[in-house]
Amino acid sequence: MLAHFPTPLLFSARHGVRQMRTPWADGPEYVTQCPIQPGASYTYKFNIENQDGTLWWHAHSKWLRATVYGALIIYPKFGVPYPFPVPKQEFPILLGEWWDRDIISVLRQAQFTGAAPNVSNAYTINGQPGDLYKCSSRDTTKFYVNSGETVLLRIINAALNQELFFTVANHMLTVVGNDAAYNKPFTTRVVMIGPGQTTNVLLTANQSPSRYYMATRAYATAQNAAFDNTTSTAILEYVSISCSSKTCIPPRPLLPILPRFNDTPTVTAYTSQLRSLPSENAKVPTKIDKNLFFTVGLGLVNCTPGPRCQGPNNTRFAASMNNVSFLLPRKTSLLQAYYQNMPGVYTTDFPAVPPVKFDYTGNVSRALWQPRFGTKLYKLKFGSNVQIVLQDTAIVTTEDHPMHLHGYHFYVVGQGFGNFNPRRDTARFNLVDPPIRNTINVPVGGWSVVRFVADNPDSHLTWGLAMAMLVENGAGELQSIEPPPPDLPPC
């Protein structure tokens, strides 16, 4: 992909590809390599191994991924069947956001003021807001189906930070895959999909031939926080009622009922049904070598009142994990600094547990609201079995948090509300058929626990509230990574 932007740098990522031995093609700017300069190009070379389903690619520099993204579809090898009946058709469904302003200007304003960024003006389905918005009805996205056939919808949430509900009027959806991994099928009327996640669903056109809205709207949980409270639509149209003459007036599509924007019970009921297939069960790590506990949330940085201090009560917003707000380097990437033994770029003292233990989802002391800043990594031994507890906090407000681990998929062995209690909650872990994901939503005022094997030597970034992990290179041919390509973009 070659794109031109006048000021910000562009970098592209294949979201969810494991990138075994090719971490240079992973994508996060200043993590795996430096960004592509405006007007320049770079060729990505990587292998896809043991992954089937739907992923996506997106720009990975600042907020450019709001508009620069697309589907990445991985079909089974020849001769390998789907674990479900082959659909007659398939449609990529890319859910996104739209701003009436230049997206980089929105970001720069937030960075300058320290306040929350402006929310989007609309959501989109395959680039179109739909006919519930002004001036967009003529270009509403349409999908055509034949009566009785089953189609595969490859749903991708390409929104910046917004979880989304998705449904189709009068039709049931059978969930068969998430994040390029199959799951035990289950049927639902509504899907909740977090930013960066993908979900494959089967839809059977078994209703009266007509036109039906697909619709998406926000799932938002932060108290008193602004969000885009609009609904985007596309149209599922049965071929038998398509108009062939200029005088034909097609029926108005039927609008589905969507959950309320803060309907956490519906979200919990949906996510609790996700289970992996039996073929994956034996791979769940049971003996843990490294147990990590990361708090995730917002913080407020004290500052001198003025134009650059427009957050709540004369502060600036800052995201943090374990009270550390991550700073990306600017002169080289983390991976280049590691493999070229460049000192002073990062430190490996990211805390494995919160520096101060507190009531994470209760009344948090204001003394704990201000994070520290640093380029701090946590170093993992190659081949170690890792467990991470991701704990939401009530600093500023509780909310659900999207978290993505580059270059990995992981098992979600547990989720719950309140503070994670290892004595009580560990006994409830699902170690039989936990879902496999590369992106997870930490529940509002709650926690998630993920497990994975550190078998991909690389620098990896968690997405949303950034921190980085360094998996040291292992011994042996299969563990070694490809050498850095000679045409790595300069900083």
UniProtKB/TrEMBL annotation:
InterPro entries: Cu-oxidase-like_N (IPR011707), Cu-oxidase_2nd (IPR001117), Cu-oxidase_C (IPR011706), Cu-oxidase_fam (IPR045087), Cupredoxin (IPR008972), CuRO_2_LCC (IPR034285), CuRO_3_LCC (IPR034289), Laccase (IPR017761). It is found in: Secreted, Extracellular space, Apoplast. The keyword Metal-binding applies. Keywords: Apoplast, Copper, Glycoprotein, Lignin degradation, Metal-binding, Oxidoreductase, Repeat, Secreted. Its EC number is 1.10.3.2. Residues 15-77, 90-238, 350-473 form the Plastocyanin-like domain. It catalyses: 4 hydroquinone + O2 = 4 benzosemiquinone + 2 H2O. Its cofactor is Cu cation. One of its GO terms (cellular component) is apoplast. Belongs to the multicopper oxidase family. This is Laccase. It comes from Buddleja alternifolia.
